[in-house]
TrEMBL record:
This is Pentacotripeptide-repeat region of PRORP domain-containing protein. Belongs to the PPR family. P subfamily. Gene3D superfamilies: Tetratricopeptide repeat domain. Keywords: Repeat. PPR repeats lie at residues 9-43. The keyword Ribosomal protein does not apply. It comes from the Eukaryota. It comes from Salix brachista. It holds the Pfam family PPR_2.
Length: 174
């Protein structure tokens, strides 16, 4: 666009920032926000919300707080969508901690996982990485395998360790 002297706008940057955040390239999204400022384009919630989502998903909560504080310093009120992004990030952390606390009660941890799914809550890599080995320990291999398939189908790339635990458990049962 710049080579063709097409003027960029907030919509242009919003689209690019969202794309970079969606592909987990939040650092590049920050660079675009800086570029916006240099061009005199004022950021707004539609630009910040994908960044908040990406940072929260990555567990970078201090940076999320910084962005939220910036809203208030700039006398801009965050939107409902902004607040949802903020809370969603803490939801992933909360569910992970809740499941970890139930490690001694594997049946309860698995039940929490199922309940979250039944209510339409997305699982993240942290919770699915925990629930798959829990199911293996409980000798519920079909469910563990389904969990693993759901991970892949949901676009979550399982950790190398999760794959090997599942593979080892199946080999030990043969």
């Amino acid at each position: 666009m710049k080579k063709k002297n097409v003027k960029t706008s907030i919509v242009t940057y919003d689209t690019l920032v969202e794309g970079y955040c969606w592909t987990r390239r939040v650092e590049r999204a920050f660079e675009l926000v800086d570029e916006m400022k240099r061009e005199g384009i004022k950021s707004n919630a539609t630009v910040c919300n994908p960044i908040i989502d990406a940072l929260a998903e990555a567990g970078r909560f201090k940076e999320v707080l910084g962005i939220m504080e910036n809203f208030f310093l700039c006398e801009t009120v965050p939107t409902i969508s902004t607040c949802n992004s903020y809370v969603k990030g803490y939801y992933r952390l909360t569910c992970h901690l809740l499941m970890k606390m139930c490690e001694e009660r594997l049946d309860l941890a698995v039940q929490i996982s199922k309940e979250m799914r039944a209510r339409g809550c997305d699982m993240d890599i942290a919770t699915t990485t925990m629930s798959t080995p829990f199911l293996c320990k409980m000798l519920r291999f079909e469910e563990a395998f389904e969990e693993f398939e759901d991970m892949l189908g949901g676009g979550i790339v399982p950790q190398h360790l999760t794959f090997h635990r599942l593979n080892d458990e199946f080999r030990n049962r043969e």
